[in-house]
Amino acid sequence: MGGLGVKNITRFNMALLAKWRWSLFHQNDSLWARVLYSRYGGGTNLCAQSSSRRDSIWWRDLLMVCGGLEQDNWFERKIKWRIGSGARARFWLDNWTGPICLASVFPRLFTISEQQNHFIQDMGSWTDSSWVWQLQWRRERFEWEIQLEQQLMQQLLECSPRAEQVDSWWWLGEPSGTYTVRSAYSAITSEVVVGSNNGAPNIIWSIPAPPKVKIFAWRMMSRGLPTVDNLASRSITISDNDALCVFCKQDIETDYHLFCTCSVVDKVWKVCLSWINCPTPLPRCILEHFNFIPGPIYQNVQVEYWRTVWLVTTWTVWRTRNLCRFNDNSFCFDSLVKEILVHSWRWLSSFTKTFRYTFSQWCSNPGLCLCRLGA
Ligand SMILES: [Zn+2]
Fold first, then answer.
1. Is-above-0.70 flag for pTM?
2. Which residues lie closer than 8 Å to 79 by C-beta, 6 or more apart?
3. Domain Reverse transcriptase zinc-binding spans what residues (predicted)?
4. What is the pLDDT of residues 284-321, one digit of tens each?
5. Distance from the CA of 212 to the center of ligand 1, in angstroms?
6. 103 CB-contact burial (10 Å; exposed 0-12 / middle 13-18 / buried 19+)
């Protein structure tokens, strides 16, 4: 490891795990890959798998590093798809047309698509050696959705599959286009460094939480989440209807609105703060919100616990937002709060040595569990 100059074991571990992902993708016909796929479920794309409790820790870690819609996709951002027959890239969910997947660019169309998890090859057919897209919808489209579809078609003009070729990845971190642990580690690290320049504090990495959530937090604070305003800053425009916050349906979705000022999310914060009898803060940005430590919390360990609760809350808001936006789920305030309680308890129990409350103790009085320590 010395030669790599590894300083951060979490990031190094991510880079190593991602190498498995790379190899699984490129050697999917090899015996070992076939054994893994048959053991853990079919399909050719690791991201399409969902984790189950019966899976080995290694496999779960691998899935975690691969990420899904709700988390940072550092790996996806470092690869470029080269589309062949379209047998391996998912039409809506993989970033094969540009830096952002089509589901994020056209969330409304994605919602009404009958082919949400389809691979590109299943989204059309060859007619007289030219490719014809055949998109299917769950229902009749509104006029404005038809216009969106035309925009999508415009974007697809230059992107037809190439028969006889295989889909592959080009690794942007190396001139050769092949994955190396060294370049992945330095990619993750340089993003972190860029993140700190943008204001994401290094303290994120020591909060008791799963690595994927820390990456999510880092990305949120570096303004890297695909919220409507962040997409707009990358010249990706979203139709008016989709630009609204999924919770309050009143304001345009910006990251600041979504995590801090949205009237619905503010109520969520009020619940968390009511555990320790503290009013909601009025911060001017996400970083200030993060740095706000409620009065009753002052010992180091308590601060650590509070930060976990903060991460759980923002992460749950983001997950819920994605489910509402992409899966058309309806939003339920009580289950969001319940989810925050469950995850906070899980993470504090597994990522700290000092937190020793039962789940029912935690649920009946979270404030007491957060503050009692050392008092
Ligand atoms: Zn809102």
1. no
2. 95, 169, 170, 171, 172
3. 179-269
4. 778 888 888 887 787 888 889 999 999 999 999 999 99
5. 25
6. buried
